Amino acid sequence: MRFRRLLIPFLLFAPLARPATTLVLQFHNNSRFPDLNWVGESIGETLRVELSGAGEIVLGRDSRAEGLRRLGLRPDADFTKATLIKLGQSLDVDYVCYGTFDVQLPPGDTQLRNSSVQIAARFLDLRKLHDGAQMAEAGKLSELSRLEEHMAWQSVQYVAPTANLPVEQFLNPKKFVRLDAEESYMRGLLSSRGEQQEKWFTQATIIDPHFAGPAFELGKINLQKKAYRPALDWFAKVPVNDARYSSARFHMGLAAYGAKDFVGASNYFREVAKTTPLNEVYNNLGAAESELNQPAALDDLRRAVEGDANDTTYRFNLGVALLQRNSFDEAAKNLQFVADHEEGETEAQTFLAKAQQHQSSPSNAKPVAQFRLKPNFDETAFRQLKAMLQPKGS
Fold first, then answer.
1. CB 307 within 8 A of CB 378
2. Residue 258, CA distances (Å) to 88, 222, 232, 291, 318 in order
3. Predicted TM-score of the model (pTM)
4. Average pLDDT of the residues in 119-146
């Protein structure tokens, strides 16, 4: 997997150790009810979120989808071991988690919620090319959330045996989700249409107002629609102990910035920078601080550039902030880089001319241009690099 350069100065001198990365697949439906395919996605999603919440490195749904697309595979297929190995190696992971589920109705009953479910999970260890742990759960389909959480605990015990996380942390009744809310959420994730997705996610939150998953997705949908205030409200529903919390706070920074609440934006980005100091976080933090004419803006924008000096967004923002402070020569250097590397770029050329002509800005002047934010937050890449620099057991 390709890593982006991050702001860790001692990287070049640190002994690197390859961290373990896990790919969790949708579980295959072995039942005679094809309409229950969402159950397989629910099992896989719960394991992915809980492994990530335990601090493990787990590929997101987008990375999984890209790997399946490259190999022409359906996400709900029952893969051979050879295919699993090929898929895992193509995504450069160490473990592949996969499995099946079956659903049985009681004799004479037609209500699926009264049925029983049997779940079988398996791990494939690609580092040693042999089978890993196997685990199973069985119970009522209406108790699916509890069964998934117990299986998640078993999975963490296998992938991270030194974590010693208590089973009570996973089996807290507050974590359990109603079956109909889980179904709505999964159907939203599996839907390809925006309006239909929003309908499913909204229905899930109506059924279970404390369900963080659909609230997070509704936040992203509203942010994409530039409905910034509703986006902030949805993201705020993601609790601090949820694996999506840092991403939610990052996106709250984007929403607050879009709503011109630069104080709020800087606070959200600063919070994320404390735990996940990615280049994009410092870039966005510096942009919000620049809007407030805060002295810390230049330091944070420089951190982003030091992390990746070839990124034209970082160089543009630093150049604009320097021009705002009448640091003409350094501003010109950064803006010249953008003009040279972005074909047809006119905005950078305009500000480059101002820097070259030493056109000064009044003290406490408003920003001379709209800063450019980075919309993506790749916490997985940060965890991988952090694990390399600080191996487990060290």
1. no
2. 38, 12, 11, 12, 20
3. 0.89
4. 96
Instruction: Catalogue the E-assigned strands of the chain.
Output: 21-24, 28-29, 57-58, 95-104, 116-125, 130-140
Q: 252-285: per-residue pLDDT in tens?
A: 999 999 999 999 999 999 999 999 999 999 999 9
- Measured CA to CA, the distance from residue 153 to residue 50 in angstroms comes to 8
- pLDDT category at 7 given cuts 50, 70, 90 is very low
Can you read off the two tokens belonging to residue 304? Answer: 């982003």
The Cα–Cα gap between 120 and 142 comes to 17
Domains belonging to the chain, first-starting first, are 9-176 (3.40.50.10610), 196-263 (1.25.40.10), 279-376 (1.25.40.10)
Dist CA 331 CA 351 (whole Å): 9
User: For the chain, how many residues are written?
Assistant: 394
Nearest to 298 by CA among 339, 329, 255, 327: 327
Residues 300-323 as b or e (16 or more Cβ within 10 Å = b): bbbbbbebbeebbbbbbbbbbbbb
Whole-angstrom distance, CA of residue 385 vs CA of residue 152 = 24
DSSP state of 259: T
Tell me: pLDDT of 20 over 90.
Answer: no
